[in-house]
Alanine--tRNA ligase
Amino acid sequence: MYKVRVLRTTAQWHHRLAVQQRFIKQLTSAELRVQFVDYFEKQGHTRVKSASLIPHNDKSLLFTNAGMVPFKEYFMKPDTAPFKTATSIQKCMRAGGKHNDLDNVGYTPRHHTFFEMLGNFSFGGYSKKEAIQLAWRFLLEELELPLARLRVTVLENDEEGYQLWKAMGLPDDKIVRCGMEDNFWSMGDGEGPCGPCTEIFWDTQDKSLDDPWLEIWNLVFMENYRTADGQITKLPSPCIDTGMGLERVASVLQGKANNFQVDQFEHLISGIRSVLGKRNVVVPSSEDPNAHEKIIADHFRAMCFLISDGVIPSNIGRGYVLRRIIRRALRSAQQLGINEPFLTDLYPHLLDGYKDGMYPELSSRAASICNVIANEEATFLKTLNRGLLLLNNVFEQPDLQQSKVIPPQVAFQLYDTYGFPFDLTLIIARERGWTVDMQAVEALQEKQKALGRESWKADDLADKSRLAEWRNQAILPQFTGYDHALLHQESQIVAAETIHKGKKTELVVAIDPCPFYGLGGGQVPDTGFITLANGSQWKVTDVFQPYEGGIALKLASPKGPKEMQKQLEEDQEFLQIGNLVRTEIDVNKRQGAEVHHTATHLLNAGLRAILKTDIVQAGSTVEPKKLRFDFTYGKPLSNDQLYKVEEWINEAALSGGETNVQHMKLNEAVDSGAIAAFSEKYGDVVRVVEVPGVTKELCGGTHVDNIRKLYPFKILNETSVAAGTRRIEAVAGLSCMEWYRQSFMPVPDLLKMLRANNTNDAVTKLDKLMQQTRETQKRLEHMTEKLATAGEKIVHPVEGIYNNIPVRVHLIDPDLDAMFMQKRANVLKESQPEYAHLLVNKNTIVVALNTSQVQEHTANSILRHILKHIKGGGGGQKEFAQGRLAEAILDEETIKTRLLPALKAQ
Ligand code: SER
């Protein structure tokens, strides 16, 4: 009789899996990428390069989170797609918004923040049937996966989908019907294309798992559109969007139970182990070393890809997600016993996993990526331990041990003061069996909004939605403002829109050609006037780009907002599309902006030259009268460094150099050494602004024709804007001259007041003066204190006699000075005129006499008499004399034994 062998132990299962694996085609991740894209290309799909992780065409998303994101527009308007079908391998990030896998990473075998999605797409080209056939053939014929280990799910009422799978030969028990939550896909919770989907699963046959079925491919039948108010409507033509996680399929082909064991991660995990090994890390037994290892591997890869696409750690939006990822990785490392910077040591190991050159930005931007990571790491490590201490205190508080809830104030303080992202606090709490009342924390955070730490909000320029219509009408004005000769010219109105916002009315127009600059890149938009054919003038208050290729001018009545409506009515006819206008740009403002834009390029180059490191631009603002440039650097620049940067720029400007502009292919530009801001979206052909030998940068802005115009250049200040990010503010050219003029105008007066010969002398004098003031201030405080308490300390005078004149000797507190003695002497002589008064304070002696009552002697003669018997010097007038004694008189006893006998003596 045939006997079925029962496999009882996990080891037996794993053995069986290993045997089966021998019959599955073994592919590396790199081979899988090639095979996938080649297959779909052969089937007529256009190969499209991965878009950036920053979704440049979609403000509703934080990150590109699926292969379809760059094609979103094409699903809605397939006619505008340059290809009917496409295939791509898209960099994806799921760490925010609807698709957020951050909390699962490390604790499941499959979740990642960053991953690659293999996809094929149809924009009205083919539909369900072909999509299913293409996918099925790829799995069975190209990858040669055994049919027996596959099954699919379909949406429960999707009869067509069900039948299509049946037609592919799948038996009923391999087609599972599921509900909307599993088989209806949408990109976010808000507006966007969506539709039913069918998912393909692989049977891992791993009995150690609760669910051995692994989802490997999702085929979305993009048929619907969800409007902002939640209505599901039909798309103009059905489209296809499929997505397959590279790591998952690689785990199937490589027979790995865990994504972190596939070749792509192997290098990184072994890198982490060698870094840990070098640091003699002993993993605490209560910790799961593998989970932390996985978290570090996943997060490290994610942070590198994010930074390579231009995300910089910050407290808002994408930057905050990046910061959370870096800090979570560091916390995991801490759990493994690493308390020192280590992340950048992993970088070469990451590169080892991408040797196929799939992501050249990882190598070309290596120095910048490591620079950003090292800065963030150093900053956080400083506060991590202090924050943990605070948290441990909480865990030890008996009154909290009952509820095991971390007080919201503590969670907020950890966030606000120690830079702990909330989820980090949640993880630590979870590990200890504690919780955090996030609602209460959020309420607190709400109160602190002033700190500017709100979470991501989509750009809400209200006008833009009204202007979306312009894009549909292909309103694409030609920008002619690079050429100064064309700033004042005749143009035509090609679109006009009046927007009412409450009581306010705004007029927005597009003119073609358009010399007004409003293309961003940090440069302020132009302002000026347009004159209509009837001679009426409108002020151009703002210029912006409502969509790629669009330029919109915001107009206001030069007579003020109250006249707006009236002028609109009067000019209505001349504001219609097709009318001619004359443009007049504020040339001074524009030229100022150009000086500072080119100066920003020189600053970027100068900083690299002097700091000898690859800084990353983190933001820039170019204004007519100054510039602001933010960049990554771990510490403040020294005065010497700042001076050298200034000198570098001034020397370059003095030597002069023409700015030339070329259009080149993006990769050629970058290969030729042009600086590119990673976060910008560049087309295949880019505009390169170069001053040979000085600077070469990708830029859409307007610039001076010769860098001579930047002289002189002056850095006004250098400050910190965020951890690891510095800010320089500077002025150039005429604005710099103006700055010097303003700064030096008060100098002659200043020198006169200080009686100084030059500014250096003035500094010395001022310093001395300030020191004196400080001392005087201190003294004054002290004396006031003394006088306030004087009442309690009055010492009775010692009575004496000098030639029949009664004498009173007053011992003055040694802390009081000569000025006090003089004042006191005056008071005494007026209040007790019958006496001769002697005031003594250490070595000082003052004699005061009221000559209206005592005529026989003078203060001076009494002092002289004393000085005959006690060594010293001094002199004075009739009523007042002052002297210095060689010996100090500090107490009553000395008065009695020295002074009184001296008075009596002959
Ligand atoms: N957009 C779908 C997903 O992300 C298929 O690519 O799963």
The chain has 29 helices and 29 strands. Confidence is low (pLDDT under 50) at residues 1-5, 450-463.
